[in-house]
Amino acid sequence: MERFDTVVVGAGMAGVTCARMLADAGRTVIVLEARERIGGRMSTERTAGFPVDLGASWIHGIRDSALWELVQALDIPTREFTVGSFQVGGRPMEHFDGTGTPMDATASSQWIADVEAVDRALVGVIARSSPGDSYLDATESALDASGLDPERIDQIREFFRHRVEEQCGAWIGDLDAHGLDEDAIDGEEVIFPRGYDELPRRIAVGVDVRLAHTVRGIRRVEDGWIVDTDHGAFGADDVVVTVPLGVLQSGALEFDPPLPQPAARSIARLGMGVFNKIFLQFPHRFWNEETYVIRALGEAGERWHSWYDVSAISGIPTLLTFAAGPLGHRVQSLPDAVVVADVARALRALYGDAVGEPTASWVTRWGDDEWSRGSYSHLPIGASHHDHDALAGPFAGGLRFAGEATWGEEPATVGAAYASGHRAAESILGHSVDRADFAAAIVDRERSAAR
Predict the structure, then answer these.
(1) Chain centroid offset of residue 223 CA
(2) Parallel, antiparallel, or unpaired: how do β-strands 215-221 and 360-363 relate?
(3) Section 305-327 average pLDDT
(4) Which residues 6+ apart lie within 8 Å of 323 measured at CB?
(5) In this structure, is the dihedral angle defined by the CA atoms of residues 369, 371, 374 and 380, taken in order, positive or negative?
(6) Does the domain at residues 45-55+76-85+186-194+273-368 carry the CATH identifier 3.90.660.10?
(7) What is the DSSP string of 166-191?
């Protein structure tokens, strides 16, 4: 049996960050990854000749972002694309009303003002909410007090539902009233024209990563831990588990002895959302050149409601839409062709025959993915942000967890995964790890390898 100072389970952003920092400090580290690639939920498809980010796509707010500092230090190109928090305005958008009719500037401005007014009231409603209240309860209270006419209320109600679906991958009635408390974007957002998975792959260079190694169990023994895989066992003094929350909830990973109660409670209380992407490429652009987002309101957008122009990545007219929450679960049972046809049909209801037949498409199914079992974490009714941090540990014997679900400040983001991997490494080492030094060491290794 091979033995290491630390075994890291999972080669996503949290896992490779933690392993790299430990290796740089002189510890012997191995990363065990069930997939045949590095990156986890940062998954980039390149077979078409350009990158398609099937998983994570954005840095959500670059101001005071440690992740943004790392990207800059590694000189990874980005492109500004700010649409965070499912915003109602702020960037060029084409709005369509409930009948599928384009809204003029006056109507769009009124719509934006309506949502912003109710959102301001919603802050107070959430602050006064009681334990057990859902985000649906809170939004309904704010809408009831708005004084708006029923049609305008219905459109905002639909907007709130879709906002929860896109931010959390969950139904609005399942989300705790405080489930979007951390949902703030500070500064511009960016996407990655070379593909987001460049980041974890470059961090992992030189780290001992064993792909296609499925971890089945983690056992505490007298002198540390044994991690059992389908390719044998590995021993370690410390173990850092970075698999997604959905895998932990599935019971696919057996712990002996059973997990400490703080960890078990957090795993049971937190939710794992489903958020799937549908990319459609077209022979020509039928939407405005400067448009960031196409959004259908009310009945017209009951199912497919928002499309994001990501044409700049490939140079081909491309729209990205999402199937999240209940819709995300439903589309996973449908063939790609059926999903794509339904999305195109929704666009034709807005633009008519100007919508050509899609020339290429990509459909994800993260809820059915064995190694993620969902897209990212959220707060169901009764959970709190403390549940995220309580899962991190450390626990007796040197067991720790990392990943977006363990970082309460900004869960469900790559930034959270990065921060949690950093925290786990510092916890094991017993001293701080300077992020600038971490980035500089990656660059130095790459330069040395290129000589």
Answers:
(1) 37
(2) unpaired
(3) 96
(4) 275, 276, 277, 278, 330, 331, 339
(5) positive
(6) yes
(7) HHHSS-GGGBBTTTTTT----S--EE
Percent of the chain with pLDDT over 90: 91
Mean pLDDT of 125-148: 96
Whole-model pTM over 0.90: yes
Query: The tokens of 250 are what?
Result: 């599935």
Cα–Cα distance for residue pair 224/217, rounded to 1 Å: 14
Interval 245-280: pLDDT, tens: 999 999 999 999 999 999 999 999 999 999 999 999
Distances (CA, A) of 307 to 24, 191, 280, 296, 327: 43, 16, 10, 9, 15
Distance from C-alpha of 79 to C-alpha of 310, rounded to nearest angstrom: 10
N-terminal to C-terminal alpha carbon distance within the chain: 36
Between strands 93-96 and 293-296, the pairing is parallel
Task: Tell how strand 275-281 and strand 293-296 pair up.
Answer: unpaired
pLDDT tens for 348-369 read: 999 999 999 999 999 999 999 9
Distance, CA of 215 to CA of 230 (rounded, Å):
7
Class of domain 2-42+195-270+377-450: alpha beta
Domain ranges of the chain: 2-42+195-270+377-450, 45-55+76-85+186-194+273-368
Q: What are the b/e assignments for 426-445, b being 16+ CB within 10 Å? A: bbbbeeebebeebbebbeee
Q: Nearest Cα to 296, choosing from 248, 245, 351?
A: 351
For position 86, what pLDDT does the model report? Answer: 75
Please state, in angstroms and as integers, the Cα–Cα distance from residue 302 to each residue in 148, 151, 246, following that order.
20, 14, 27
Separation between Cα atoms, residue 280 and residue 369, nearest integer Å: 22
* Eight-class DSSP state of 59: B
> Structure tokens of 204?
């992992």
For 307-329, give the DSSP string: EEE-HHHHTS-EEEEEEETHHHH
Cα gap 16→28, rounded to integer Å: 14
278: which strand partners?
321, 363
- Comparing C-alpha atoms, which of 203, 250, 221 is closest to residue 42? 203
- Contact call for residues 175 and 93 (beta carbons, < 8 A): no
> What does the DSSP 8-state code read for residue 395?
B
CA distance 78 to 319: 19
